[in-house]
Amino acid sequence: MHEMLTVVTDVRGICLSVMRLQSAAARAVYAACHVHGVISVQPLSNYFDCLLTCLVYIFIILCDTVQMETPKFRQLRLLYPGYRHHGGQYAYADVIQLVFGQTGNTTRSRDLRGGAAALRLSWTLNRYGGRHAIGWEPVHISGHEADSFTGADGQQYIYRTDAFRPFLASRYGDPVVERATFREEAREPRRRRRRRWSWALLAGRQGIVRVVGYIDGRQHSHIGLWDCDRFYQSRDWSLDTHLVTVEFWEAAGLRCFCSF
């Protein structure tokens, strides 16, 4: 009996050690289970309790590490509230009204210094629903105090474009990343050289794209949809002279909308 209890203690110790090595999301799930009495941290009295606890830990870890398939682009296109002056129907004020309701929220809208690009994608994912929705719990992932607002429907809406990088990577895996390089036109003066990025990387592909640039030492980014050879219902952010990197998550499904 003493030997069995020793084995139980050792196995439980291994489980806890493994949990400490997992991501914050796994630890958060463990903590929630503990609070609600799903997992007990009291000394385990028998081998079967220990085995059950180990299985719960393993299940949490697997759920946290298995990546989702990205959303299908056909549906993303239908749901995306595109920019009014770029083929869409929604101006900035319209997006604020979509998210916060008829009265809007002027206090929160003032925090959107980089525009409503992140809110547009958040709206799209929340309307897509299921596992792709942002969710109901506030998002804290970029190191800021908060990365999301609560919309009129009670769901969370990420409003920081820099928060979408770790958020999407945690769900769909790391993006394809390309760094912009200087390309100087032979007939252009040196002072007019511009940063360009290759279209070959994304040609014929569809998905979620995030572009990152730096102005006066501060990061500025935009996030939206990429449709084969262009930004979908958005300005062409590749023309930004401060562009540094491009991040791309390819959408699931057939590439059925491409036309060149």
Structure characterization notes:
With 260 residues, this protein is α+β, with helices and mostly antiparallel strands. The protein folds into two domains: 2-65, no CATH class; 73-250, endopeptidase fold (from Nostoc punctiforme), CATH 3.90.1720.70. It has helices at residues 2-21, 24-35, 47-65, 73-79, 92-100, 106-109, 117-128, 161-172; strands spanning 148-150, 156-158, 176-179, 181-183, 194-196, 205-215, 218-228, 230-231, 243-250. The strands form three sheets. The protein has a five-stranded antiparallel beta sheet with strand order 3-9-6-7-8. A hairpin with a 1-residue loop joins strand 7 (218-228) and strand 8 (230-231). Helix 1 packs parallel to helix 3 (47-65). It starts with a helix and ends in a 10-residue tail after the last strand.
Brief rundown of the structure:
The protein is an alpha+beta fold and 260 residues long. The protein is built from eight helices and nine strands. It folds into two domains: 64 residues, no CATH class; 178 residues, endopeptidase fold (from Nostoc punctiforme).
